[in-house]
Amino acid sequence: MKIPALLLMVLLVSGCINVKHEPVSNNSIFPESPVVDIAKKDLAQRLNITAREIKLIKQELVNWRDTSLGYPEKGMMYTQQITPGFRIILEARNKTYEYHSDYKRVVGPKEGKDIQ
Q: What are the contacts of 97-102 at 24+ separation with CB within 8 A?
């Protein structure tokens, strides 16, 4: 490792360099994940609108109790293991929609209340 790179690392770790973080515009503490795009595409198809008309309201980390991701289907069996993922809240046409995901797929939506 070269001396300038090592010096930069030491300065960053020690807090001598102030790194500005861009604000997150999706009311989440996480950048928008790829599963949000999957949820937006699904909702756009269901509502016959474009994904650009859908707003991400919230995306939060969740540990689901099993692989149903909180939306079990009647008659189905699911692996009983903690499954990390996200709760994704989208808004379209003055209504909210809740999707659940792991890191690869989404299930839902559950329709929320009208937004006034």
A: 97/43, 99/39, 99/42, 99/43, 100/62, 100/64, 100/69, 100/70, 100/71, 101/33, 101/35, 101/38, 101/39, 101/69, 102/35, 102/64, 102/67, 102/69
